[in-house]
Design brief:
homodimer, alpha+beta, 60s Ribosomal Protein L30, Chain: A, Phosphoribosyl-aminoimidazole Synthetase, Chain A, domain 2
Chain lengths: ~325, ~325
Protein backbone atom coordinates (compact mmCIF):
# COMPACT_ATOMS: atom_id res chain seq x y z
CA UNK A 1 0.00 0.00 0.00
CA UNK A 2 1.27 3.47 -0.79
CA UNK A 3 1.42 5.94 2.04
CA UNK A 4 -1.22 8.64 1.74
CA UNK A 5 -0.57 12.34 2.28
CA UNK A 6 -1.50 13.91 5.62
CA UNK A 7 -4.86 15.19 4.35
CA UNK A 8 -5.67 11.91 2.59
CA UNK A 9 -4.65 9.96 5.68
CA UNK A 10 -7.15 11.87 7.80
CA UNK A 11 -9.91 11.64 5.19
CA UNK A 12 -9.35 7.91 4.59
CA UNK A 13 -8.74 6.50 8.04
CA UNK A 14 -10.11 8.90 10.58
CA UNK A 15 -12.99 10.87 9.01
CA UNK A 16 -15.21 7.74 9.07
CA UNK A 17 -14.81 7.70 12.88
CA UNK A 18 -15.88 11.33 13.30
CA UNK A 19 -18.87 12.11 15.48
CA UNK A 20 -21.20 15.13 15.76
CA UNK A 21 -19.22 18.29 16.48
CA UNK A 22 -16.17 17.01 14.56
CA UNK A 23 -17.10 18.81 11.31
CA UNK A 24 -15.89 15.74 9.42
CA UNK A 25 -12.35 16.38 10.74
CA UNK A 26 -11.99 19.15 8.18
CA UNK A 27 -11.61 21.96 10.69
CA UNK A 28 -9.03 23.10 13.25
CA UNK A 29 -11.29 22.46 16.18
CA UNK A 30 -14.32 20.56 17.42
CA UNK A 31 -17.42 21.29 19.45
CA UNK A 32 -17.73 19.35 22.70
CA UNK A 33 -21.39 18.52 23.23
CA UNK A 34 -22.92 19.77 26.45
CA UNK A 35 -25.67 17.91 28.27
CA UNK A 36 -28.15 19.91 30.36
CA UNK A 37 -27.53 19.45 34.07
CA UNK A 38 -24.18 17.78 33.48
CA UNK A 39 -20.54 18.74 33.97
CA UNK A 40 -17.89 18.02 31.35
CA UNK A 41 -14.93 15.96 32.48
CA UNK A 42 -11.71 15.91 30.46
CA UNK A 43 -8.72 13.62 30.79
CA UNK A 44 -5.51 13.10 28.85
CA UNK A 45 -3.16 10.14 28.76
CA UNK A 46 -0.22 9.76 26.42
CA UNK A 47 0.99 6.35 25.23
CA UNK A 48 4.45 5.94 23.72
CA UNK A 49 5.91 2.90 21.97
CA UNK A 50 8.62 1.37 24.11
CA UNK A 51 7.26 2.99 27.27
CA UNK A 52 3.54 2.17 27.44
CA UNK A 53 3.33 -0.58 24.85
CA UNK A 54 5.60 -2.68 22.64
CA UNK A 55 6.30 -1.27 19.19
CA UNK A 56 5.25 -4.63 17.69
CA UNK A 57 1.92 -4.87 19.52
CA UNK A 58 -0.97 -5.20 17.03
CA UNK A 59 -1.91 -1.68 15.83
CA UNK A 60 -5.60 -2.19 16.60
CA UNK A 61 -4.75 -3.10 20.18
CA UNK A 62 -2.42 -0.09 20.54
CA UNK A 63 -5.29 2.16 19.46
CA UNK A 64 -7.83 0.48 21.70
CA UNK A 65 -5.63 0.49 24.78
CA UNK A 66 -4.70 4.15 24.23
CA UNK A 67 -8.38 5.04 24.21
CA UNK A 68 -9.29 2.67 27.04
CA UNK A 69 -6.78 4.06 29.53
CA UNK A 70 -8.52 7.41 29.09
CA UNK A 71 -11.96 5.83 29.45
CA UNK A 72 -10.73 4.22 32.66
CA UNK A 73 -10.00 7.70 34.02
CA UNK A 74 -13.54 8.77 33.09
CA UNK A 75 -14.94 5.63 34.76
CA UNK A 76 -13.17 6.48 38.02
CA UNK A 77 -14.81 9.92 37.96
CA UNK A 78 -18.29 8.43 37.52
CA UNK A 79 -18.47 9.90 34.01
CA UNK A 80 -20.00 8.67 30.78
CA UNK A 81 -17.81 8.93 27.62
CA UNK A 82 -18.78 11.67 25.15
CA UNK A 83 -15.94 11.82 22.61
CA UNK A 84 -12.19 12.18 22.17
CA UNK A 85 -9.41 14.00 20.37
CA UNK A 86 -6.55 12.01 18.88
CA UNK A 87 -2.96 13.23 18.68
CA UNK A 88 -0.93 10.80 16.62
CA UNK A 89 2.81 11.14 15.94
CA UNK A 90 3.85 8.54 13.38
CA UNK A 91 7.47 7.31 13.19
CA UNK A 92 9.41 7.39 9.90
CA UNK A 93 8.61 3.78 9.07
CA UNK A 94 4.83 3.87 9.39
CA UNK A 95 2.85 1.98 6.78
CA UNK A 96 -0.67 2.38 5.45
CA UNK A 97 -1.27 -1.22 6.57
CA UNK A 98 -0.34 -0.40 10.15
CA UNK A 99 -2.51 2.72 10.10
CA UNK A 100 -5.49 0.84 8.70
CA UNK A 101 -5.28 -1.61 11.62
CA UNK A 102 -4.91 1.24 14.09
CA UNK A 103 -7.97 3.07 12.72
CA UNK A 104 -10.02 -0.14 12.65
CA UNK A 105 -9.30 -0.88 16.32
CA UNK A 106 -9.95 2.71 17.29
CA UNK A 107 -13.24 2.77 15.41
CA UNK A 108 -14.38 -0.48 17.01
CA UNK A 109 -13.83 0.87 20.51
CA UNK A 110 -15.19 4.32 19.70
CA UNK A 111 -18.41 2.60 18.63
CA UNK A 112 -18.48 0.10 21.51
CA UNK A 113 -18.00 2.82 24.12
CA UNK A 114 -20.15 5.41 22.32
CA UNK A 115 -17.16 7.75 22.32
CA UNK A 116 -16.73 9.21 18.81
CA UNK A 117 -13.63 10.87 17.43
CA UNK A 118 -13.98 14.68 17.49
CA UNK A 119 -10.68 15.87 16.07
CA UNK A 120 -6.97 15.93 16.67
CA UNK A 121 -3.60 16.28 15.06
CA UNK A 122 -1.45 13.94 12.98
CA UNK A 123 2.26 14.68 12.81
CA UNK A 124 5.60 13.06 12.10
CA UNK A 125 7.59 11.67 15.01
CA UNK A 126 11.38 11.72 14.72
CA UNK A 127 11.39 8.83 17.22
CA UNK A 128 8.79 6.43 18.53
CA UNK A 129 5.09 6.26 17.80
CA UNK A 130 3.10 8.45 20.17
CA UNK A 131 -0.63 8.35 20.82
CA UNK A 132 -1.97 11.29 22.81
CA UNK A 133 -5.68 11.07 23.54
CA UNK A 134 -7.90 13.59 25.27
CA UNK A 135 -11.24 12.07 26.26
CA UNK A 136 -14.37 13.90 27.32
CA UNK A 137 -17.18 12.62 29.48
CA UNK A 138 -20.30 13.92 31.15
CA UNK A 139 -21.31 13.53 34.76
CA UNK A 140 -24.44 14.87 36.48
CA UNK A 141 -23.65 18.35 37.84
CA UNK A 142 -21.60 18.34 41.07
CA UNK A 143 -21.53 14.53 41.05
CA UNK A 144 -17.97 13.97 39.86
CA UNK A 145 -16.20 11.40 42.03
CA UNK A 146 -12.75 12.66 43.04
CA UNK A 147 -9.60 11.08 44.37
CA UNK A 148 -9.94 13.33 47.39
CA UNK A 149 -12.75 12.49 49.80
CA UNK A 150 -11.83 9.35 51.75
CA UNK A 151 -13.15 9.47 55.35
CA UNK A 152 -12.13 7.43 58.39
CA UNK A 153 -13.82 4.05 58.50
CA UNK A 154 -14.50 3.88 54.75
CA UNK A 155 -14.35 0.44 53.19
CA UNK A 156 -11.87 0.16 50.33
CA UNK A 157 -13.07 -1.77 47.31
CA UNK A 158 -11.29 -2.82 44.14
CA UNK A 159 -12.88 -4.08 40.94
CA UNK A 160 -11.79 -7.21 39.08
CA UNK A 161 -8.34 -8.59 39.78
CA UNK A 162 -4.98 -6.96 40.43
CA UNK A 163 -1.55 -7.63 38.98
CA UNK A 164 -2.39 -9.46 35.75
CA UNK A 165 -0.87 -6.91 33.39
CA UNK A 166 2.25 -6.46 35.54
CA UNK A 167 2.76 -10.23 35.70
CA UNK A 168 2.39 -10.45 31.96
CA UNK A 169 5.10 -7.86 31.43
CA UNK A 170 7.36 -9.55 33.99
CA UNK A 171 6.71 -12.92 32.32
CA UNK A 172 7.72 -11.51 28.96
CA UNK A 173 10.98 -10.16 30.38
CA UNK A 174 11.82 -13.11 32.66
CA UNK A 175 10.99 -15.78 30.06
CA UNK A 176 13.71 -14.36 27.84
CA UNK A 177 16.13 -15.04 30.68
CA UNK A 178 14.72 -18.53 31.35
CA UNK A 179 13.68 -17.59 34.89
CA UNK A 180 12.48 -20.81 36.58
CA UNK A 181 9.02 -19.46 37.50
CA UNK A 182 8.15 -18.80 33.88
CA UNK A 183 8.44 -22.53 33.09
CA UNK A 184 5.47 -23.31 35.31
CA UNK A 185 3.14 -20.86 33.58
CA UNK A 186 0.76 -22.68 31.24
CA UNK A 187 0.05 -21.37 27.77
CA UNK A 188 -3.56 -20.50 28.59
CA UNK A 189 -2.55 -18.54 31.69
CA UNK A 190 0.16 -16.67 29.80
CA UNK A 191 -2.34 -15.79 27.08
CA UNK A 192 -4.89 -14.66 29.66
CA UNK A 193 -2.40 -12.33 31.34
CA UNK A 194 -1.18 -11.00 27.99
CA UNK A 195 -4.76 -10.20 27.05
CA UNK A 196 -5.24 -8.30 30.28
CA UNK A 197 -2.15 -6.21 29.52
CA UNK A 198 -3.06 -5.62 25.89
CA UNK A 199 -6.73 -4.70 26.35
CA UNK A 200 -7.73 -3.38 29.76
CA UNK A 201 -11.46 -3.13 30.43
CA UNK A 202 -12.50 0.34 31.56
CA UNK A 203 -15.01 -0.13 34.37
CA UNK A 204 -17.50 2.37 33.00
CA UNK A 205 -20.49 0.34 34.16
CA UNK A 206 -19.53 1.11 37.74
CA UNK A 207 -20.20 4.83 37.33
CA UNK A 208 -23.63 4.91 38.90
CA UNK A 209 -22.51 2.85 41.89
CA UNK A 210 -19.56 5.23 42.36
CA UNK A 211 -21.64 8.38 42.07
CA UNK A 212 -24.31 7.09 44.43
CA UNK A 213 -22.14 5.49 47.10
CA UNK A 214 -18.39 6.26 46.93
CA UNK A 215 -16.55 9.01 48.80
CA UNK A 216 -13.60 8.82 46.41
CA UNK A 217 -12.19 6.75 43.56
CA UNK A 218 -9.06 6.32 41.43
CA UNK A 219 -8.26 4.04 38.54
CA UNK A 220 -5.24 1.88 39.23
CA UNK A 221 -2.68 2.62 36.58
CA UNK A 222 0.59 3.10 38.47
CA UNK A 223 0.23 0.15 40.87
CA UNK A 224 -2.30 -0.75 43.53
CA UNK A 225 -0.09 0.14 46.51
CA UNK A 226 1.00 3.49 45.13
CA UNK A 227 -2.39 4.56 43.86
CA UNK A 228 -3.98 3.59 47.17
CA UNK A 229 -1.39 5.73 48.96
CA UNK A 230 -2.08 8.59 46.55
CA UNK A 231 -5.82 8.53 47.24
CA UNK A 232 -5.54 8.16 51.02
CA UNK A 233 -2.88 10.86 51.40
CA UNK A 234 -5.21 13.56 50.07
CA UNK A 235 -7.40 13.48 53.18
CA UNK A 236 -4.83 12.33 55.74
CA UNK A 237 -5.97 8.72 55.80
CA UNK A 238 -4.15 5.41 55.90
CA UNK A 239 -5.13 1.73 55.90
CA UNK A 240 -3.96 -1.80 56.60
CA UNK A 241 -4.50 -4.24 53.76
CA UNK A 242 -4.08 -8.00 54.08
CA UNK A 243 -2.35 -9.07 50.88
CA UNK A 244 -4.53 -12.18 50.90
CA UNK A 245 -7.62 -9.99 50.48
CA UNK A 246 -6.43 -8.45 47.23
CA UNK A 247 -8.43 -10.16 44.45
CA UNK A 248 -6.29 -12.20 42.05
CA UNK A 249 -7.05 -14.05 38.85
CA UNK A 250 -6.54 -17.83 38.84
CA UNK A 251 -3.49 -17.31 36.67
CA UNK A 252 -1.96 -14.82 39.10
CA UNK A 253 -2.81 -17.03 42.06
CA UNK A 254 -0.99 -20.01 40.53
CA UNK A 255 2.06 -17.91 39.74
CA UNK A 256 2.12 -16.45 43.24
CA UNK A 257 2.04 -19.97 44.65
CA UNK A 258 5.15 -20.93 42.67
CA UNK A 259 6.94 -17.58 43.07
CA UNK A 260 5.74 -15.78 46.22
CA UNK A 261 8.24 -12.98 45.65
CA UNK A 262 6.13 -11.80 42.72
CA UNK A 263 3.61 -10.39 45.21
CA UNK A 264 5.44 -7.08 44.91
CA UNK A 265 5.02 -7.10 41.13
CA UNK A 266 1.31 -7.75 41.59
CA UNK A 267 0.76 -5.02 44.15
CA UNK A 268 2.99 -2.35 42.64
CA UNK A 269 3.35 -3.13 38.92
CA UNK A 270 0.39 -1.14 37.67
CA UNK A 271 -1.39 -1.08 34.32
CA UNK A 272 -4.43 -2.66 36.01
CA UNK A 273 -7.07 -0.12 35.01
CA UNK A 274 -9.26 -1.47 37.76
CA UNK A 275 -11.03 0.95 40.08
CA UNK A 276 -10.17 1.48 43.70
CA UNK A 277 -12.78 3.34 45.72
CA UNK A 278 -13.74 4.23 49.28
CA UNK A 279 -17.30 3.60 50.44
CA UNK A 280 -18.73 4.48 53.87
CA UNK A 281 -19.89 1.37 55.77
CA UNK A 282 -23.49 2.60 55.75
CA UNK A 283 -23.41 2.45 51.93
CA UNK A 284 -21.41 -0.71 51.39
CA UNK A 285 -24.35 -3.07 51.01
CA UNK A 286 -26.05 -0.75 48.53
CA UNK A 287 -22.75 -0.26 46.68
CA UNK A 288 -22.27 -4.00 46.34
CA UNK A 289 -25.83 -4.48 45.06
CA UNK A 290 -25.40 -1.67 42.56
CA UNK A 291 -22.03 -2.99 41.34
CA UNK A 292 -23.45 -6.47 41.06
CA UNK A 293 -26.38 -5.19 39.01
CA UNK A 294 -23.87 -3.51 36.71
CA UNK A 295 -21.97 -6.77 36.35
CA UNK A 296 -18.77 -5.45 37.91
CA UNK A 297 -17.06 -7.67 40.51
CA UNK A 298 -15.97 -5.64 43.56
CA UNK A 299 -13.97 -6.85 46.56
CA UNK A 300 -13.44 -5.18 49.94
CA UNK A 301 -9.72 -5.01 50.76
CA UNK A 302 -9.52 -2.96 53.93
CA UNK A 303 -10.80 -0.12 56.07
CA UNK A 304 -9.41 3.38 56.30
CA UNK A 305 -8.23 5.22 59.39
CA UNK A 306 -6.66 8.60 60.08
CA UNK A 307 -2.89 8.68 59.67
CA UNK A 308 -0.17 10.19 57.59
CA UNK A 309 1.87 7.03 57.00
CA UNK A 310 1.41 5.19 53.70
CA UNK A 311 -0.93 2.18 53.85
CA UNK A 312 0.58 -1.04 55.18
CA UNK A 313 0.31 -4.39 53.39
CA UNK A 314 0.47 -7.48 55.58
CA UNK A 315 1.38 -11.03 54.60
CA UNK A 316 -0.42 -14.18 55.82
CA UNK A 317 1.60 -14.11 59.07
CA UNK A 318 0.67 -10.49 59.74
CA UNK A 319 4.11 -9.11 58.86
CA UNK A 320 4.29 -5.78 57.07
CA UNK A 321 5.55 -5.94 53.48
CA UNK A 322 8.23 -3.53 52.34
CA UNK A 323 8.29 -2.60 48.66
CA UNK A 324 11.35 -1.43 46.78
CA UNK A 325 9.19 0.89 44.67
CA UNK A 326 5.55 1.15 45.75
CA UNK A 327 4.35 2.75 42.54
CA UNK A 328 5.34 3.25 38.95
CA UNK A 329 6.87 6.67 38.36
CA UNK A 330 8.22 7.86 35.06
CA UNK A 331 11.01 9.71 36.88
CA UNK B 1 19.39 20.95 40.62
CA UNK B 2 18.27 17.39 41.33
CA UNK B 3 15.51 15.97 39.22
CA UNK B 4 12.25 15.62 41.12
CA UNK B 5 10.03 12.53 41.02
CA UNK B 6 6.96 12.56 38.78
CA UNK B 7 4.60 13.53 41.60
CA UNK B 8 6.98 16.20 42.92
CA UNK B 9 7.49 17.54 39.41
CA UNK B 10 3.77 18.08 38.98
CA UNK B 11 3.35 19.56 42.45
CA UNK B 12 6.38 21.88 42.08
CA UNK B 13 6.16 23.14 38.52
CA UNK B 14 2.62 22.68 37.30
CA UNK B 15 0.26 22.81 40.29
CA UNK B 16 0.88 26.57 40.67
CA UNK B 17 -0.54 27.01 37.15
CA UNK B 18 -3.74 25.09 37.88
CA UNK B 19 -7.07 26.83 37.41
CA UNK B 20 -10.59 26.14 38.72
CA UNK B 21 -11.72 22.64 37.78
CA UNK B 22 -8.15 21.30 37.90
CA UNK B 23 -8.45 20.00 41.48
CA UNK B 24 -4.88 21.15 42.08
CA UNK B 25 -3.67 18.62 39.46
CA UNK B 26 -4.11 15.89 42.05
CA UNK B 27 -6.80 14.00 40.18
CA UNK B 28 -7.05 11.92 36.98
CA UNK B 29 -9.34 14.38 35.29
CA UNK B 30 -10.55 17.96 35.19
CA UNK B 31 -13.84 19.78 34.89
CA UNK B 32 -14.21 21.99 31.81
CA UNK B 33 -16.19 25.06 32.82
CA UNK B 34 -19.37 25.70 30.88
CA UNK B 35 -20.66 29.17 30.16
CA UNK B 36 -24.42 29.66 29.75
CA UNK B 37 -25.38 30.25 26.14
CA UNK B 38 -21.94 29.22 24.88
CA UNK B 39 -20.53 26.24 23.02
CA UNK B 40 -17.26 24.59 24.04
CA UNK B 41 -14.58 24.41 21.37
CA UNK B 42 -11.66 21.99 21.72
CA UNK B 43 -8.45 21.83 19.71
CA UNK B 44 -5.27 19.80 19.92
CA UNK B 45 -1.85 20.45 18.44
CA UNK B 46 1.27 18.43 19.14
CA UNK B 47 4.74 19.98 19.06
CA UNK B 48 7.83 17.78 18.78
CA UNK B 49 11.48 18.79 19.16
CA UNK B 50 13.22 18.56 15.81
CA UNK B 51 9.92 18.81 13.91
CA UNK B 52 8.06 21.84 15.26
CA UNK B 53 10.86 23.56 17.14
CA UNK B 54 14.60 23.26 17.72
CA UNK B 55 15.64 21.15 20.69
CA UNK B 56 17.81 24.04 21.92
CA UNK B 57 15.09 26.71 21.73
CA UNK B 58 14.60 28.38 25.14
CA UNK B 59 12.29 26.17 27.23
CA UNK B 60 9.97 29.05 28.08
CA UNK B 61 9.51 29.83 24.40
CA UNK B 62 8.85 26.15 23.57
CA UNK B 63 6.10 26.13 26.19
CA UNK B 64 4.61 29.40 25.03
CA UNK B 65 4.62 28.54 21.35
CA UNK B 66 3.08 25.12 22.08
CA UNK B 67 0.21 26.83 23.86
CA UNK B 68 -0.08 29.68 21.36
CA UNK B 69 -0.50 27.46 18.30
CA UNK B 70 -3.55 26.02 20.05
CA UNK B 71 -4.83 29.48 20.98
CA UNK B 72 -4.43 30.44 17.33
CA UNK B 73 -6.84 27.63 16.43
CA UNK B 74 -9.32 28.96 18.98
CA UNK B 75 -8.90 32.49 17.59
CA UNK B 76 -9.79 31.29 14.09
CA UNK B 77 -13.01 29.76 15.46
CA UNK B 78 -14.00 33.04 17.11
CA UNK B 79 -13.53 31.45 20.54
CA UNK B 80 -12.27 32.79 23.85
CA UNK B 81 -9.68 30.63 25.71
CA UNK B 82 -10.97 28.78 28.78
CA UNK B 83 -8.19 26.38 29.79
CA UNK B 84 -5.89 23.63 28.58
CA UNK B 85 -4.54 20.16 29.25
CA UNK B 86 -0.81 19.53 28.95
CA UNK B 87 0.72 16.26 27.77
CA UNK B 88 4.47 16.39 28.25
CA UNK B 89 6.87 13.63 27.27
CA UNK B 90 10.34 14.41 28.60
CA UNK B 91 13.47 12.97 26.97
CA UNK B 92 16.06 11.05 29.01
CA UNK B 93 18.28 14.11 29.48
CA UNK B 94 15.72 16.55 30.88
CA UNK B 95 16.85 18.76 33.72
CA UNK B 96 15.01 20.52 36.53
CA UNK B 97 16.45 23.77 35.17
CA UNK B 98 14.91 23.20 31.75
CA UNK B 99 11.59 22.27 33.29
CA UNK B 100 11.55 25.34 35.52
CA UNK B 101 11.97 27.53 32.43
CA UNK B 102 9.29 25.63 30.59
CA UNK B 103 6.80 26.00 33.46
CA UNK B 104 7.61 29.68 33.86
CA UNK B 105 6.93 30.42 30.19
CA UNK B 106 3.78 28.34 30.24
CA UNK B 107 2.52 30.08 33.36
CA UNK B 108 3.20 33.53 31.91
CA UNK B 109 1.13 32.79 28.81
CA UNK B 110 -1.59 30.95 30.72
CA UNK B 111 -2.01 34.13 32.78
CA UNK B 112 -1.70 36.54 29.85
CA UNK B 113 -4.31 34.70 27.80
CA UNK B 114 -6.53 33.82 30.79
CA UNK B 115 -6.18 30.16 29.88
CA UNK B 116 -5.33 28.19 33.03
CA UNK B 117 -3.85 24.69 33.17
CA UNK B 118 -6.55 22.11 33.91
CA UNK B 119 -4.64 18.85 33.94
CA UNK B 120 -2.62 16.51 31.79
CA UNK B 121 -0.06 13.77 31.77
CA UNK B 122 3.70 13.78 32.25
CA UNK B 123 5.61 10.80 30.90
CA UNK B 124 9.06 9.71 29.78
CA UNK B 125 9.92 9.98 26.09
CA UNK B 126 12.37 7.43 24.67
CA UNK B 127 13.16 10.01 21.97
CA UNK B 128 12.50 13.70 21.53
CA UNK B 129 10.63 16.09 23.77
CA UNK B 130 6.92 16.17 22.95
CA UNK B 131 4.38 18.77 24.00
CA UNK B 132 0.78 17.80 23.36
CA UNK B 133 -1.71 20.48 24.31
CA UNK B 134 -5.49 20.36 24.20
CA UNK B 135 -7.02 23.82 24.55
CA UNK B 136 -10.62 24.66 25.31
CA UNK B 137 -12.50 27.80 24.43
CA UNK B 138 -16.00 29.15 24.56
CA UNK B 139 -17.97 30.74 21.76
CA UNK B 140 -21.56 32.08 21.87
CA UNK B 141 -23.91 29.22 20.92
CA UNK B 142 -24.04 28.50 17.17
CA UNK B 143 -21.53 31.26 16.50
CA UNK B 144 -18.43 29.16 15.88
CA UNK B 145 -16.61 30.31 12.73
CA UNK B 146 -15.72 27.33 10.56
CA UNK B 147 -13.32 26.70 7.72
CA UNK B 148 -16.31 25.79 5.59
CA UNK B 149 -18.58 28.66 4.57
CA UNK B 150 -16.83 30.74 1.92
CA UNK B 151 -19.31 32.12 -0.65
CA UNK B 152 -18.70 33.53 -4.13
CA UNK B 153 -17.61 37.16 -4.07
CA UNK B 154 -16.28 37.05 -0.51
CA UNK B 155 -13.29 39.22 0.21
CA UNK B 156 -10.29 37.34 1.56
CA UNK B 157 -8.46 39.01 4.44
CA UNK B 158 -5.28 38.09 6.27
CA UNK B 159 -4.05 39.47 9.58
CA UNK B 160 -0.53 40.76 10.19
CA UNK B 161 2.22 39.70 7.79
CA UNK B 162 2.95 36.43 6.02
CA UNK B 163 6.17 34.46 5.67
CA UNK B 164 8.25 35.80 8.56
CA UNK B 165 8.59 32.49 10.42
CA UNK B 166 9.30 30.54 7.23
CA UNK B 167 11.97 33.05 6.20
CA UNK B 168 13.54 32.78 9.63
CA UNK B 169 13.79 29.01 9.33
CA UNK B 170 15.16 29.30 5.80
CA UNK B 171 17.67 31.90 6.98
CA UNK B 172 18.87 29.60 9.74
CA UNK B 173 19.41 26.75 7.27
CA UNK B 174 20.84 28.82 4.40
CA UNK B 175 23.19 30.89 6.59
CA UNK B 176 24.96 27.67 7.57
CA UNK B 177 25.66 27.12 3.88
CA UNK B 178 26.72 30.73 3.32
CA UNK B 179 23.93 31.34 0.81
CA UNK B 180 24.49 34.81 -0.69
CA UNK B 181 21.07 36.21 0.27
CA UNK B 182 21.68 35.64 3.95
CA UNK B 183 24.62 38.07 3.88
CA UNK B 184 22.30 40.98 3.11
CA UNK B 185 20.01 40.35 6.08
CA UNK B 186 20.75 42.79 8.88
CA UNK B 187 20.97 41.66 12.48
CA UNK B 188 17.81 43.49 13.51
CA UNK B 189 15.80 41.94 10.67
CA UNK B 190 17.12 38.46 11.44
CA UNK B 191 16.19 38.94 15.09
CA UNK B 192 12.73 40.20 14.15
CA UNK B 193 12.04 37.17 11.97
CA UNK B 194 13.42 34.78 14.60
CA UNK B 195 11.07 36.33 17.15
CA UNK B 196 8.11 35.80 14.84
CA UNK B 197 9.04 32.11 14.51
CA UNK B 198 9.67 31.61 18.21
CA UNK B 199 6.60 33.37 19.57
CA UNK B 200 3.63 33.64 17.26
CA UNK B 201 0.84 35.98 18.36
CA UNK B 202 -2.55 34.29 18.42
CA UNK B 203 -5.06 36.75 16.96
CA UNK B 204 -7.61 36.25 19.71
CA UNK B 205 -8.67 39.89 19.67
CA UNK B 206 -10.14 39.34 16.22
CA UNK B 207 -12.77 36.93 17.51
CA UNK B 208 -15.68 39.36 17.66
CA UNK B 209 -14.97 40.69 14.18
CA UNK B 210 -14.87 37.13 12.87
CA UNK B 211 -18.07 36.06 14.58
CA UNK B 212 -19.93 39.17 13.47
CA UNK B 213 -18.72 39.44 9.88
CA UNK B 214 -16.81 36.42 8.51
CA UNK B 215 -18.26 33.52 6.53
CA UNK B 216 -15.25 31.32 7.29
CA UNK B 217 -11.78 31.44 8.82
CA UNK B 218 -8.63 29.37 9.23
CA UNK B 219 -5.37 30.02 11.03
CA UNK B 220 -2.39 29.83 8.72
CA UNK B 221 -0.10 27.14 10.06
CA UNK B 222 0.79 25.01 7.03
CA UNK B 223 1.41 27.87 4.57
CA UNK B 224 -0.74 30.65 3.20
CA UNK B 225 -1.24 29.09 -0.26
CA UNK B 226 -2.12 25.65 1.05
CA UNK B 227 -4.37 26.82 3.85
CA UNK B 228 -6.20 29.15 1.48
CA UNK B 229 -6.75 26.20 -0.88
CA UNK B 230 -7.97 24.09 2.05
CA UNK B 231 -10.57 26.68 3.08
CA UNK B 232 -11.82 27.44 -0.44
CA UNK B 233 -12.08 23.77 -1.49
CA UNK B 234 -14.68 23.04 1.19
CA UNK B 235 -17.36 25.06 -0.59
CA UNK B 236 -16.13 24.73 -4.19
CA UNK B 237 -14.53 28.17 -4.37
CA UNK B 238 -11.31 29.46 -5.82
CA UNK B 239 -9.55 32.83 -6.03
CA UNK B 240 -6.86 34.82 -7.77
CA UNK B 241 -4.36 36.47 -5.45
CA UNK B 242 -1.82 39.06 -6.56
CA UNK B 243 1.36 38.16 -4.70
CA UNK B 244 2.01 41.90 -4.30
CA UNK B 245 -1.16 42.19 -2.19
CA UNK B 246 0.03 39.69 0.41
CA UNK B 247 1.11 41.76 3.45
CA UNK B 248 4.82 41.46 4.29
CA UNK B 249 6.95 42.76 7.11
CA UNK B 250 9.70 45.25 6.26
CA UNK B 251 12.25 42.51 6.90
CA UNK B 252 10.51 40.11 4.51
CA UNK B 253 10.10 42.84 1.89
CA UNK B 254 13.83 43.61 1.93
CA UNK B 255 14.73 39.93 1.63
CA UNK B 256 12.29 39.43 -1.22
CA UNK B 257 13.88 42.36 -3.03
CA UNK B 258 17.31 40.70 -2.83
CA UNK B 259 16.11 37.15 -3.40
CA UNK B 260 12.81 37.14 -5.32
CA UNK B 261 12.80 33.33 -5.46
CA UNK B 262 12.00 33.30 -1.74
CA UNK B 263 8.42 34.31 -2.56
CA UNK B 264 7.57 30.62 -2.56
CA UNK B 265 8.97 30.23 0.96
CA UNK B 266 6.88 33.19 2.08
CA UNK B 267 3.64 31.96 0.55
CA UNK B 268 3.98 28.26 1.36
CA UNK B 269 6.34 27.94 4.33
CA UNK B 270 3.78 28.13 7.09
CA UNK B 271 4.09 28.66 10.85
CA UNK B 272 2.49 32.10 10.42
CA UNK B 273 -0.37 31.74 12.90
CA UNK B 274 -2.08 34.64 11.22
CA UNK B 275 -5.77 34.38 10.38
CA UNK B 276 -7.18 34.08 6.90
CA UNK B 277 -10.89 34.75 6.60
CA UNK B 278 -13.63 35.34 4.03
CA UNK B 279 -15.95 38.31 4.49
CA UNK B 280 -18.92 39.18 2.25
CA UNK B 281 -18.48 42.59 0.55
CA UNK B 282 -21.52 43.99 2.37
CA UNK B 283 -19.69 43.37 5.66
CA UNK B 284 -16.17 44.32 4.71
CA UNK B 285 -16.30 47.93 5.93
CA UNK B 286 -17.77 46.85 9.27
CA UNK B 287 -15.21 44.03 9.53
CA UNK B 288 -12.35 46.45 8.98
CA UNK B 289 -13.68 48.87 11.59
CA UNK B 290 -14.15 46.06 14.10
CA UNK B 291 -10.64 44.63 13.45
CA UNK B 292 -9.15 48.08 13.73
CA UNK B 293 -10.90 48.67 17.05
CA UNK B 294 -9.40 45.39 18.27
CA UNK B 295 -5.95 46.52 17.18
CA UNK B 296 -5.50 43.75 14.60
CA UNK B 297 -4.15 44.77 11.17
CA UNK B 298 -6.13 43.12 8.36
CA UNK B 299 -5.41 43.26 4.62
CA UNK B 300 -7.66 42.27 1.71
CA UNK B 301 -5.81 39.89 -0.64
CA UNK B 302 -8.41 38.79 -3.16
CA UNK B 303 -11.98 37.89 -3.98
CA UNK B 304 -13.47 34.42 -4.20
CA UNK B 305 -15.30 32.86 -7.14
CA UNK B 306 -16.79 29.45 -7.83
CA UNK B 307 -14.32 26.88 -9.13
CA UNK B 308 -12.65 23.63 -8.25
CA UNK B 309 -9.09 24.57 -9.16
CA UNK B 310 -6.72 25.66 -6.38
CA UNK B 311 -6.33 29.44 -5.99
CA UNK B 312 -3.88 31.09 -8.39
CA UNK B 313 -1.10 33.44 -7.29
CA UNK B 314 0.03 36.04 -9.82
CA UNK B 315 3.32 37.90 -9.97
CA UNK B 316 3.68 41.62 -10.78
CA UNK B 317 3.48 40.84 -14.51
CA UNK B 318 0.27 38.88 -14.05
CA UNK B 319 1.91 35.49 -14.61
CA UNK B 320 0.66 32.56 -12.52
CA UNK B 321 3.13 31.23 -9.96
CA UNK B 322 3.76 27.49 -9.72
CA UNK B 323 4.81 26.12 -6.34
CA UNK B 324 6.79 22.96 -5.82
CA UNK B 325 4.90 22.24 -2.61
CA UNK B 326 1.98 24.57 -1.91
CA UNK B 327 1.61 23.58 1.73
CA UNK B 328 3.47 21.91 4.56
CA UNK B 329 2.44 18.29 4.97
CA UNK B 330 3.95 15.92 7.50
CA UNK B 331 3.66 13.04 5.01
Amino acid sequence: MNRPSEDALIATYFAPLAGPGAFGLRDDAALVAQKPGHDIVATKDMSIAGVHFFADDPPGAVARKSLRVNLSDLAAKGAEPAGFLLGLALPEDWTAHWLAGFAQGLGADAAAYKCPLLGGDTVKSPGALIVSITAFGTVPAQKIVLRAGVAAGDILYVTGTIGDAALSLRYRVDALQDSPWTKYVGQADAAYLAGRALLPEPRLALREALRAHAHAAIDISDGFAGDLAKMLRLTGMTAEVAAADVPLSDAARKILHDAPYLLETILTGGDDYEILCAVPPSQSAAFEVCADAAGIPVHPVGTTMPGNAPPVFKDAEGRGLVFARPSFQHF
